Every structure is written in C-alpha cells, then in structure tokens.
Amino acid sequence: MDTPVEHLLVGVLAGLIVLTCVTVHYEALRLLGRTVGVHAHRRVGVLLVMLGLLVAHALEIWVFALGYMLVDWAPDMGSIAGIEAPDVIDYMYLSAMVYSTVGFGEIYPVGAMRMLSAAEALSGLSLITWSASFTFLAMLKFWPAALSQPAEGESDD
C-alpha cells in the first residue's frame, strides 16, 4: 500500500528531475541561440535548431527513464504494470510516451511512481511548447524572406 511518505519521496525525486530537465533545455536553447545564428547558413540554421532540440528532448526523456528505473528498483515505491521484467528500453518507452503526453499503452506506472509520470507529463508539455516557440523565432530569423513575400505580379491583399 502506498503511503504519503513514498509519494513525497517520489515527488522530491520528480522535482529534482524536472529541475535537471529544465536546466538541460535552457542550456540547449542558449547554445542553439548563440551558435547557430552566427555560424550557419540560413536554411541550415533551421535544420540545426530542429536537430538540436530533438537531441535535447531525447536527453530529457532518458533522464526521466533513469528516474523510473530508480523508483522501480526501490522497494515499495511503485512499479511498471503490464510487463513482467522491464528493461532499459521499456523505461525509455514509458518515458517517451509520458513526456510527449501520448498517454499510457500496454505499460503504465502504478503506486507512488505515478507522481513521477505526472511531473513528466507537465514538464514534457511545457518543454515541447518552449521548443515550438523557440523554433518559431528561429524560423523568423533564418527562413528565406522570399517565402514570406508575394510572388511577382501578385498583390499582398
């Protein structure tokens, strides 16, 4: 049976993981913002922003996957239901589904581990929208101006 102490411990772990992921994301955006615009051709800049953000999201998913492993290995802190002996790929799969807010499929958290999945869903949604905003701003800067102007002979009404 889950106790409030178990939920609190997993909640503290979730807070530390969220803090780690937000820091990773911030640093990735900072790095992309400083280096891509200076060193890349305009079209390549958008591509590098997208690839850089995908790498950042993948790292964040793996950080949460490690959190699931820690919680699963601790006694009475929760587990993954729907699979008998989860391996590292199962933890990563669960993390990716929660992070992207796709939802639960054949495997899902039970017990206090649910605190971690709740924190991951909120964090993933926030970090993905942060990435979308950053990408929009990068596209305004890097995207060829010719695409935003009317073709010759057309009016812009």
Structure report:
The structure is a single chain. The chain is mostly helical. It has helices at about 5-40, 40-75, 90-100, 115-140; strands spanning about 80, 110. A two-stranded antiparallel sheet has the order 1-2. The longest helix is centred in the first third of the chain and has 36 residues, at about 5-40. The radius of gyration is 20 Å and the shape is elongated. The protein starts with a helix and ends in a 15-residue tail after the last helix.
Summary keywords:
mainly alpha, two-stranded antiparallel ribbon, elongated
Tell me, what's the shape? elongated
pLDDT < 50 runs, ≥5 residues: none
Helix content: over 70%
* Structural category: mainly alpha
Q: What's the end-to-end separation, in Å?
A: 65 Å
The H/E string reads HHEHEH
Number of strands: 2
Strand order of the largest sheet: 1-2
Radius of gyration: 20 Å
Number of helices, where a helix is a run of at least 4 consecutive DSSP H or I residues: 4
Q: Can you give the mean pLDDT?
A: 88
**Percent range for β-strand residues:** under 5%
Sheet bearing the most strands, described? 2 strands, antiparallel
